[in-house]
Amino acid sequence: ASIIWNEFNNNWDELALESEKLLAQFKGVSLEKSAEIEIIDIPEVGLERESIIMARVNQGFFRKTVLSSYDNKCCVTGIEIPELLIASHIIPWKSNEKLRLNPQNGICINRLHDKAFDAGYMTIDNNYKIILSPAIKKLESKDWVQKFFLPYDNKEIILPQRFYPDKYCLEYHYNEIFIK
């Protein structure tokens, strides 16, 4: 069992695509339909089509895995409306190809806090506590900072049932993205 786990844990792209293919086969439908991919803007044939479909299947897999791990709740606020939630990458998608689909490089977070997290206005430390940037804290007199940010400063995130955020990823976010 550990051999199989290690094989997939080191290659989330392959795991995502393979699992979605098996699910589509089980449902008796196409991969595009099973993964709920809009095919309007995808070429009808060719390598570009396959590449686009694979990317969208993998992105969908990442989102479903991360949101499911957090029981469809924002790790900051507890918001439970899937349309308002993002499966956010801790280390950005473009920065580390190997970690793109690893759910331990993801957090389930609402859209407002996702933008703040991506821009470095907040981070999560190795104890899973939310840390606000001095760039946000200096605006503490603003109503919106008092309502939407200060209540969460130094609070532990709502932890997932599985796939805890990887501490290496959290350290990267703190060192490379967070505004100190």
Explain what this protein looks like in three dimensions.
The protein is mainly α and 180 residues long. It has helices at 2-9, 12-27, 31-34, 47-69, 111-119, 134-137, 143-148, 167-176, and strands at residues 85-89, 106-110, 122-124, 130-132. The strands form two sheets. A two-stranded antiparallel ribbon has the order 1-2. A two-stranded antiparallel sheet has the order 3-4. α2 (12-27) crosses α4 (47-69).
- Helix residue percentage: 40-55%
Low-confidence stretches: none
- Give a count of the beta strands, DSSP E runs of length 2 or more: 4
- Rg computed from alpha carbons, rounded to a whole number of angstroms: 18 Å
What value does the average pLDDT take? 86
Order of helices and strands: HHHHEEHEEHHH
Strand content: 5-15%
Give a short account of the largest sheet.
2 strands, antiparallel
Can you tell me the overall shape? elongated
Order of strands across the main sheet: 1-2
What is the subunit arrangement here? single chain
> How many H/I helices?
8
Distance between the termini: 43 Å
Structural class: mainly alpha
Summarize this, please?
Helices cover 44% and strands 9% of the residues.
Question: What are the defining features of this structure?
Answer:
mainly alpha, single chain, 180 residues, two-stranded antiparallel ribbon, 9% strand
